[in-house]
Specification:
Two copies of one chain form a homodimer.
Chain A: H1 7-22, H2 30-37, H3 41-47, H4 51-73, H5 80-102, H6 109-117, H7 122-148, H8 158-179, H9 183-197
Helix pairs in contact in A: 1-2, 1-4, 1-6, 4-7, 5-7, 5-9, 6-7, 7-8, 8-9
The structure holds a DNA duplex (30 and 30 nucleotides).
Amino acid sequence: MGAQIPETKRRLIAAALELIWRSSYGSVSVDDICKAADVRKGSFYHFFPSKADLAVAAMDHADIELRATYDRIFSPASPPLQRLENLAAFIYDAQKESAEKYGHVCGCPCASLGSEMGAQEPEIRAKFDEQRRHKTRYYQNVIRDLVAEGLLPADADVKAKADELFAYLMGRVMLARIENDLEPLRRDLKNGIFRTLGIAAETTPAA
Amino acid sequence: MGAQIPETKRRLIAAALELIWRSSYGSVSVDDICKAADVRKGSFYHFFPSKADLAVAAMDHADIELRATYDRIFSPASPPLQRLENLAAFIYDAQKESAEKYGHVCGCPCASLGSEMGAQEPEIRAKFDEQRRHKTRYYQNVIRDLVAEGLLPADADVKAKADELFAYLMGRVMLARIENDLEPLRRDLKNGIFRTLGIAAETTPAA
DNA sequence: AGCTGTCTTGACCGAACAGTCAAGACCCTA
DNA sequence: TAGGGTCTTGACTGTTCGGTCAAGACAGCT
């Protein structure tokens, strides 16, 4: 199981993810990635048949890195409303960190890659879809618990609500990147999540 | 006023918009655009100082082309709920048309460009922001009419709701592009708009 | 006819691009 | 210690990239 990824390959993936996240797939060359990873080009093509394959590996890496965090955010030990607040806070914090580190809000690398290259590289689209389904499983789980607690009606369409939540969050994060603006995430994201799911929000926007 | 844009320049803008919409900024070269517009490269650089400047002009063109359509969709002659239904139907129809014409759902060219290049080309970000503000003016207008008709409470935050609607629609359209899937637009967009604005939806999802 | 400004042309540039390859270094196992 | 698979290296390929340029075509004006 433990795939035992070689150090060089790991460095290439990490460098690619960082560079593509900051700018874009098309703006980052294989040479850029090799230089950032301190790896020669021949090694690159030893591990990856093409630049697009590395991009897919980078998407995978980004997703897998987040799994422990998502397990913590959606821990069944927390009440479901708390989990949603955790999610909103995490998204804001992660985007804020990217802005401080790279000078601008970086959004979601998988969504940006999917938008830029999904049509031309089917494997990128497929990887995005896989990750979308993976994330909506967390959302479905918390929605079911909201139903169980009576915070959502028993006949709520769990799958539909989870899909709506994914679309809402992705849109908000991408907009934050495009506009380079964290403020709407800080101010409105929590209420937006509640509204999207149909939970009566008692809170006012963050000051 | 009538800026009198030369035919050659017009062809370059149209070709650039089409090619970038289909694929992406980074995947389309100046040569590609020139070939599609049947224009020689020297002419290109006579009209545009750089590829990025053409992209901004293409965003402008895309937006201006839509203004008459938006005026029709949001005509004050229609009841406000009808305007929102018009909007949902237009978005679906436009995306469906792009899918039939180009083989896949193309999303919004300005959002894709903004995501891909906004960080590196400030003028692209600025143009996107200008267009976002322009569109939210339509949304604010219809929200005020919804308040006037008692469909929204008198103390509704018009600007906040308009911004939420923009984010929701952009997210939905970008997701349709990434996943190459029209179905959620057809099935859920109308209800999603109502939910985003806080209007009690009496309708069930489209079959 | 001559001038001027706008537009067009096609050849041209150096840099950057994705990708290749043969040769060798390294490490495990036999 | 010999062999073989994995990895590394750096030079290399042919193409394409965004952008430049000088020369000329063409129109409108005088």
